[in-house]
Amino acid sequence: MRSWVRDKLLGVLGVHGREFDRDRTHLGVWKLRVAELERQQREAGKPKSAILRGLLTAQEERFVLKRQREVFYANVLGIIGAMISVIGFVYLMIDVSRTSAAAVSIWSAPSIATVAGAILALTSLLLAYAIHAKSVRDAMPNLVRRKLEGHQIQGREEFLSISLPHDYIQSEYVLRQFTNGIAVWSPSVCRALVAGQDIKVKKGKKFEPTESATYKVMKLRVHEKIIQGASIRNEDKCRLAADILTAEGNLVVVQGIVQETDYYALLATDYSSGFVVHEFEDEMREVAGVLVYDGFSLFTTRTAESCRELRPLSNLVSSSLPASASANVIGVSAILITSDMHVFLTRQRVESVASGGMLAPSGSGSVDWLDAEKLPAGEFPLMNLLMPAMRREILEEAGLLQAGRPEKPMDIALMPVGFARLLHHAGKPEFFFMGRINAGYDEIQKSRAWTSEERLFTNGCVGFNQQLDPRSMVALRASWRALISEIRAVPEVKISCPLDIQILCVDAVLETDETARLLMNFLRSEAEFPGS
């Protein structure tokens, strides 16, 4: 009965009691989970799960913000009730002074107003208490009090001055500036990937950031998203802790480990490159804030007063640099080619985090940890992890379903053509593919069916008239150059950084006859597709 009464009272304010219970229960479950995991880690002699602690903080902040709004409504209602009661009491006293107390009816307007106002005020106070006003106010995190402040640096000078480790230089890695980003890439790595050289990796322990600044940045970035009304899902992602180098044209993989991480860590590190954060002692900010994160220290090391050096993804034996402390979530991108040799790309919606409003590859995204969990323990080829993730991203973003068989997606063959680290995303690793699909362009246009979720990020496909011609290497190179000219001529549309890098990777592959022939054979191959 008490729960039903509270639900009705909260409903008056537009607040649903069951929603309140659900949120509080959800928060309580998170607290119990984190406490239990921390107990297990303490018994095992391991450090606390800071990522889970960050998750709990975000849940607390969401709960606090909603409760603050509800308490405000209750207090406003209480003030209105108190005012009505006071005004009614004043008029009641005036009536008593004119006549007598016995002559004043209890059903007169002043009497009713006095009693009703008092009941409303008391009910509102009880309601505010029911919403735990005091506990909400006491539990309000420093973040909501605006003790943290961040801003993105302007200009690219800081990024362009970053130097590369010696091993990277030996592997022909160079820093390249694009219209919408900065990346580090190696043409020799691209050619080795096309040649089909294996990259062996194994699953490592879960990644836990060691830098205390990471969690303050995480707090701020997650809080920003909540304030903006964004729907945040902290999905588990796959982290690369391996450097891909070359020696005499052959791939050399250092360390070869993939780890579990999550979207919050990605947001706080990879997507906070160049994001400067200060912490203030009080809300008024009368004292200058203390620098929490300079936007670069997680993925670079200062070697001189005016020079930063890019940290490797692993602990290189020949380097004294520590490994990158960023999430380094593995990204994948692909350009898809139809059976009639047409290319189509996607145009991202403005709301997209990575390439909002830009022309992007046919499919792009990040590798989920669920993809790694499907693979056996021990060493396995990295492409066994990347290719299923790449196929999923293409099918989701481009909305591809087999014509006449909506329950079965179209089959896609993939060929790796490049690798890069995106400096504007804290050196985040990105792999690039060329994809071949067993359907013509017209068939694809008829069978597209985006999910409601992918429609939030993809604004549709963009097709091109120029067809690739894989009948010879000369024809392939000429048709590729003509295609790129057509892509760059699309009016009023910017090209995303991943698409720019992919174009550069394919250019490097087509430079040598050996790798150009491999790409040509892949495009005109009539081999069976996976899953057919």
Description:
The protein is elongated, with a radius of gyration of 30 Å. α3 (50-98) crosses α9. Strands 3, 4, 12, 13, 14, 15, 17, 18 and 19 form a 9-stranded mixed β-sheet that branches. With 532 residues, the chain is of the alpha+beta class. It has helices at 2-12, 17-43, 50-98, 109-130, 133-139, 157-160, 166-170, 187-194, 212-227, 263-268, 369-373, 382-398, 441-447, 452-455, 473-488, 497-511, 513-524, and strands at residues 148-152, 162-163, 174-178, 181-185, 200-203, 236-247, 250-262, 275-279, 290-293, 300-304, 307-310, 331-337, 343-348, 359-360, 363-366, 380-381, 412-422, 428-437, 458-463. Mean pLDDT is 75; it is low at 1-22, 133-145, 402-406, 450-458 and 527-532. β12 and β13 (343-348) form a beta hairpin. Helix content is 43%, strand content 21%. It has 17 helices and 19 strands.
Task: Please write out the topology.
Layout: H1 2-12, H2 17-43, H3 50-98, H4 109-130, H5 133-139, E1 148-152, H6 157-160, E2 162-163, H7 166-170, E3 174-178, E4 181-185, H8 187-194, E5 200-203, H9 212-227, E6 236-247, E7 250-262, H10 263-268, E8 275-279, E9 290-293, E10 300-304, E11 307-310, E12 331-337, E13 343-348, E14 359-360, E15 363-366, H11 369-373, E16 380-381, H12 382-398, E17 412-422, E18 428-437, H13 441-447, H14 452-455, E19 458-463, H15 473-488, H16 497-511, H17 513-524
Parallel strand pairs: 2-11, 5-7, 12-18
Antiparallel strand pairs: 1-8, 3-4, 4-17, 5-16, 6-7, 8-9, 10-11, 12-13, 12-15, 13-14, 13-19, 17-18
Helix pairs in contact: 2-3, 3-4, 3-5, 3-9, 8-16
